[in-house]
Specification:
- It is built from 19 helices and 4 strands.
- The strands form 2 sheets. It has a two-stranded antiparallel ribbon. A two-stranded antiparallel sheet has the order 3-4.
- The chain is globular and about 75 Å long.
- Helix content is 56%, strand content 3%.
- A hairpin with a 3-residue loop joins strand 1 and strand 2.
Length: 438
């Protein structure tokens, strides 16, 4: 186990956050007491100090040994990868597996959205209040703030069991469609610059690293450098949730899938953020030619640098996975290993996904149910796990209640693409895959 451990000593920041909130309240109070000018002067001092701290933080020099183990350049990455995956020449049941992968992703995401980021106890309380089993075996029957609107398209009630009418909008779904459209426009030789151009034209909004990159693109920064300015989210989960479209097109060829994922991820992420998309693209491409989701994970691991933090964490999860007996044990193990790491980081969420695959044992419902129950970024993790298991069991292996409300429609927030036929999306991915296989 020690061979898989690289301990990050996180510096504690939450007390500063609390102090800034308290200082804000003092400023408001003293303004009410007639000290507005003095408060303004103190606030300017704070602003200057924070600007200096931010500049100093961004100017730190990364550890050169770790940097050498975690390069950003593709050829350097490839030189550090174990490799060894053989591309499939043919996938006889490609249509069935592709439909399973697409529907599996849509179902896992939709199950996770109403409780995205919730802790376990809060999800348990919702299940108890609504009379549902936990982990959930069907979509949630109620959602918090059901009148709320996601991405300007769907009310949150549309993510509940009786409210689903088509696959409701989400970034984990929109980026899969975006990958399809990029491949159809530019082909398998697309570049990071092509991704940036497509985003500028068709992507109206984004979050965290994606938002930073989009703003940088619109400010005139080249796509190859869009991830490098004002981006503390460079290792968060945003790139790995974009892996699926490229994995589907590269079905059966993990190395190609990782290459496509790299070019997409480089727009927004660096180091383990990039490897997250490469890893899951490879694992999902492998899922089209294996019958064991854990074997797909092992194949994905061959396509990222062997000593990078993500590889060490995935190796740990693969070793630990057989002994994990419940979603609670999975979450506890991840909390103990990763400590203060962001709950939307690539690495900790990847391990939860892997633990869910172990617990699911190839059963679709058990997999996405347990992954959602673990919490953290659980719409992302359930979508990814659903995609992997779906590619293995096919559409016929997904119980009908997960897809009955989809009515062959999926919605996005891509400009000009408000909705699509799920069958059409699946067939288009099949065509892309077959263009390489046949």
């Amino acid at each position: 186990m020690e061979n898989h451990q690289r301990k990050t000593e996180y510096v504690e920041f939450w007390s500063l956050y609390e102090r800034l909130n308290t200082l804000t309240e003092w400023g408001l109070l003293q303004s009410e007491y007639g000290c507005g000018k003095e408060v303004a002067a103190i606030r300017e001092q704070m602003d200057r100090a924070l600007t200096e701290a931010e500049k100093a933080m961004q100017g730190l020099t990364p550890d050169p040994v770790l940097k050498a183990q975690e390069p950003d350049e593709y050829e350097a990455i490839r030189a550090l990868c174990p490799g060894g995956n053989t591309p499939a020449r043919k996938i006889p049941d490609l249509e069935e597996r592709m439909s399973g992968a697409v529907l599996g992703r849509f179902a896992g995401c939709t199950l996770g959205v109403p409780v995205e980021g919730w802790d376990i106890d809060r999800m348990k309380d919702l299940a108890a209040y609504t009379g549902m089993p936990f982990p959930p075996k069907d979509y949630w029957t109620q959602a918090e703030t059901p009148w709320g609107v996601q991405y300007g398209r769907d009310r949150r009630v549309n993510y509940t069991r009786d409210g689903i009418n088509g696959v409701p909008v989400d970034d984990d779904i929109t980026y899969t469609i975006l990958g399809l459209l990029i491949l159809e426009k530019y082909g398998f030789d697309f570049t990071t610059a092509d991704v940036g151009a497509y985003w500028k034209e068709y992507l109206p909004c984004a979050c965290t690293a994606e938002k930073v990159a989009l703003e940088n693109l619109r400010a005139g920064i080249a796509a190859e450098h869009a991830a490098e300015k004002n981006n503390p989210y460079a290792q968060w989960i945003g790139a790995d949730i974009r892996a699926d479209g490229f994995a589907y097109a590269a079905a059966g060829d993990p190395a190609l899938a990782a290459s496509l994922g790299y070019r997409d991820a480089y727009l927004t992420h660096r180091r383990n953020g990039i490897y997250g998309e490469m890893f899951f693209a490879a694992a999902e491409a492998a899922a089209f030619v294996v019958n064991d989701p854990v074997e797909a994970i092992r194949m994905g691991l061959r396509e990222i640098p062997r000593e990078c933090a993500l590889a060490l964490d995935v190796a740990w999860a693969l070793e630990k996975g057989p002994s994990i007996r419940s979603y609670e044990e999975a979450r506890q193990a991840v909390d103990e290993r990763f400590g203060a790491m962001s709950k939307v980081h690539t690495n900790n969420n990847a391990c939860l996904t892997i633990f869910g695959l172990f617990l699911g044992g190839g059963d679709f419902t058990e997999t996405i149910s347990n992954v959602v129950a673990m919490g953290m970024d659980n719409d992302c993790t359930a979508a990814t796990a659903g995609s992997i298991v779906g590619a293995i069991v096919g559409e016929k292996g997904i119980p009908a209640h997960w897809t009955a409300g989809f009515h062959d429609q999926v919605r996005t927030y891509i400009d000009g693409v408000p909705s699509l036929s799920i069958r059409d999306v699946t067939e288009r991915f099949v065509r892309l895959a077959r263009s390489r296989l046949d």
